[in-house]
Amino acid sequence: MVLKNSVVKKKTSFTRGAYYWLMFMIDNYQSVRTILKIDYESFIIIQTVLSHFLHSMNKEEDSDWKRMWKLVGDKKAKENLSKSKLIPASISLVTDLPRETVRRKLLELNKKKILVLDKKRGIQLGEKFEIFHKKFTQNSILKVSEMLNKWEKIGTLEFILNVNTQQIPATIKALDRTLKL
User: Fold this and answer.
1) How many angstroms separate the Cα of 27 from the Cα of each of 21, 81, 129, 149, 156?
2) Given this model, what pLDDT does residue 97 score?
3) CA-CA distance, 113 to 133, in Å (whole number)?
4) CA–CA distance, 104 with 54 (Å, rounded to integer)
5) Are 45 and 106 within 8 A, CB to CB?
6) Can you say how many angstroms the Cα of residue 161 is from the centroid of all Cα atoms in its chain?
7) Digit-coded pLDDT (tens) for 33-43
8) Distance (Å, whole) CA 140 – CA 136
9) Is the distance from CB of 126 to CB of 114 less than 8 angstroms?
C-alpha cells in the first residue's frame, strides 16, 4: 500500500554531487593549462611549495586574503617563514614524482622566477609568483564556492560532512583491500 500524502525524506543526489566534483576537477586541470600555462606536474610542484609556505605562515599567524599575498611578495617575510627548508627530494617524496622530473621542473620554474632555488633556505616562492598565481587562485576559489553552493542545494554537502562507512561501504571495502596490497 502506497500512501500518497506521506512525506518522503529528501534523498541526497550523490551522482549529481559527484558530477559537480568531476566538472570542478576538469575545470581545474584546464585552468592550469590556460591561466597558468604550465603542465600539471609543474603545477603540483608549485602547490607543494605553496603548501609548505602556508604551513609555515600558519604557525606564525592566521592571515586573510590581503595579508597572505603581502607575505607572498615580502622577501623578509619569506626568509623568516623558511625555518624548515624545503628540498627537491621532499617534493619528490610528497608528490611521488621522480627526483629527476622534480629537479628539471624546478629549474624551469626558477628560470621563470616563479620559484627560487636557494641552497641555504631551500625552495621558496619567487618574485613573480604572485603575478603568476593570483588570478588562478581567485578563479579556483570562485569555482569551489560555486560547487559547494550546488552541493548544499542538492544535499551533497551535508552528506559529505556527515558521511560514514555505512553510507559508502563498497568504497571503503575496496579501499581497504587496495591499501592492504
Assistant:
1) 10, 32, 21, 17, 20
2) 97
3) 12
4) 24
5) yes
6) 18
7) 999 999 999 99
8) 6
9) yes
pLDDT one-digit tens code per residue, 78-103: 666 656 789 999 999 999 999 999 99
SS3 115: strand
Q: DSSP class of residue 167? A: T
Rounded Cα gap, residues 42 and 49, in angstroms? 11
> 125 - beta bridge partners?
115
What lies within 8 Å, CB to CB, of 83 at 6+ separation is 56
Give residue 1's pLDDT.
44
Neighbouring residues of 35: CB distance < 8 A, sequence distance ≥ 6: 135, 136, 139
The sign of the dihedral angle between the CA atoms of 36, 40, 41, 44 is: positive
pLDDT at position 154: 92
Query: Phi first, then psi: what are they for 110, rounded to 5°?
Result: -65, -40
